[in-house]
UniProtKB/TrEMBL annotation:
Source organism, top-level taxon: Eukaryota
Principal location: Golgi
Molecular function via GO: SNAP receptor activity
Organism: Indicator maculatus
GO cellular component, one term: SNARE complex
Name of the molecule in the record: Golgi SNAP receptor complex member 1
Organism lineage string: Eukaryota, Metazoa, Chordata, Craniata, Vertebrata
Membrane topology designation: Single-pass type IV membrane protein
């Protein structure tokens, strides 16, 4: 982005980069929190067979999640405001060449903001789904535990039922992980297709914007082809003359 140090454009660009770097770090921590939350819940599930191991309390993780979500939303709002200010500056730039460079940089910052927003909402939705599912499963576990403690069961049929129940839940978890991987692959392929279409569109725009360059390239190619034909003809004539001279 061509701008003088200390100008409004340079200051806005610096602020946008700082916010983007901060958002990147926050989103990484946010994703790790979601992963650790899921791992903790799975760990509870694995320890469920032991009656002496207490369930972990996830309220601290829930509070941390809510705090980080608010912080990320605030950063996204600030970055959106910076992009809007850069858009206003771009519209008032006046110089066509400078305006085009500003538009390119602004679009790049907007793409980064869109990617961060999509990643945040996706991680947040996954976390909320895990928490809601675990809350439902927690009530089921409490009912099972109260039933076991109330009847003091060493009942073989109940144990078999609980083991089968755990097998089904493990299968369900594996299916969900497989679906998540498939959805992520689909999103990556869609993103790559959009990127290729964008590159093709930009190339077509450049070709239409500079027809003189295309004309010059075509003339150069025609001249090279003509020179090649002339050189080939000269070589052929010289070869024929040498053969005639050799046989005479």
């Amino acid at each position: 982005l061509p701008s003088r140090p200390g100008s409004p454009c340079a200051d806005l660009r610096k602020q946008a980069r700082q916010l983007e770097n901060e958002l990147d770090l926050k989103l990484v921590s946010f994703s790790k929190l979601c992963t650790s939350y899921s791992g903790t819940r799975d760990g509870r599930r694995d320890r469920y067979s032991s009656d002496t191991t207490p369930l972990l309390n996830g309220s601290s993780q829930d509070r941390m999640f809510d705090t980080m979500a608010v912080e990320i939303e605030q950063l996204l709002g600030k970055l959106t405001g910076i992009n809007d200010k850069m858009a206003e500056y771009t519209n008032s730039a006046g110089v066509p060449s400078l305006n085009a460079a500003l538009m390119h940089t602004l679009q790049r910052h907007r793409d980064i903001l869109q990617d961060y927003t999509h990643e945040f909402h996706k991680t947040k939705a996954n976390f909320m789904a895990i928490r809601e599912r675990e809350n439902l499963l927690g009530s089921v576990r409490k009912d099972i535990e109260s039933y076991k403690s109330g009847s003091g069961v060493n009942n073989r049929r109940t144990e078999l039922f609980l083991k089968e129940h755990e097998h089904l839940r493990n299968s369900d978890r594996l299916i969900e992980e497989t679906i998540s991987i498939a959805m992520a692959t689909k999103e990556n392929m869609t993103s790559q297709r959009g990127m290729l279409k964008s590159i093709q569109s930009k190339m077509n725009t450049l070709a239409n914007r500079f027809p003189a360059v295309n004309s010059l390239i075509q003339r150069i190619n025609l001249r090279k082809r003509r020179d090649s034909l002339i050189l080939g003809a000269v070589i052929g004539i010289c070869t024929i003359l040498l053969l005639l001279y050799a046989f005479h």
